[in-house]
Design goal:
2 domains; alpha/beta; globular; four-stranded mixed sheet; 10 helices
Length: 201
């Protein structure tokens, strides 16, 4: 499981312009949307931080989930402000905070390995199990129970417990995400991962 895709960071002025003029940005009061120069400078610094962690993070995600990466390269678009998502992988900058960028990127990469074509087939039984086990919860919560369990497992291995605490704190005002963390803490990330592996076809 040593093979993994390299993440390539991309700035597209056309793509960024959509976010710059979008509704999400207009709702952020008293904020100035970062300039192209600021975004490019941030990408350069964030990439340096990421390259130091890339191999351990990418191989760790694969090993913990027992899933193989099916891509040779992952393009990550970086804009000034957005709600991060996995397809196409899109992140915003966090002025001066590169570790948060890596936290969010890791989160989206976990979504990404789950969503590749071959892995979707392997995970059908696992999702059926977790959807049944947590059937009283929202879809967002059910999905993120697994994502957060993997993220917890990875960061505990990398001795970054403080980053897990920070991730939990960051979503405390978002009910579905907070509930997912509550479940991971209650049921234990190791047991959740064990059930995930048991149900992979």
């Amino acid at each position: 499981m040593e093979n993994y895709p390299k993440v390539t960071f991309i700035y597209s002025s056309v793509y960024d312009k959509k976010w710059r003029s979008g509704e999400l940005n207009s709702k952020k009061e008293n904020t100035v949307y970062p300039s192209a120069t600021e975004i490019l400078d941030y990408i350069r610094n964030a990439e340096k931080e990421w390259r130091e962690e890339e191999k351990r993070t990418m191989t760790g995600i694969s090993r913990i989930t027992s899933l193989r990466w099916e891509e040779e390269k992952i393009c990550c678009f970086v804009v000034g402000r957005c709600r991060p998502f996995a397809f196409p992988t899109t992140l915003q900058i966090y002025e001066g905070d590169y570790q948060r960028f890596i936290d969010v990127l890791t989160h989206e990469l976990i979504h990404r390995i789950f969503s590749s074509k071959g892995n979707k087939k392997k995970l059908k039984r696992a999702w059926s199990y977790f959807n049944k086990k947590y059937r009283g919860e929202s879809r967002v919560t059910r999905v993120h129970v697994i994502v957060y369990a993997v993220h917890s497992y990875l960061y505990r291995e990398l001795e970054r417990d403080e980053r897990i605490s920070e991730n939990i704190r960051r979503v405390r005002h978002k009910p579905d995400y907070k509930k997912a963390w509550d479940i991971v803490i209650r049921d234990g990330y190791e047991k959740i991962i064990e059930k995930l592996k048991q149900n992979i076809a």
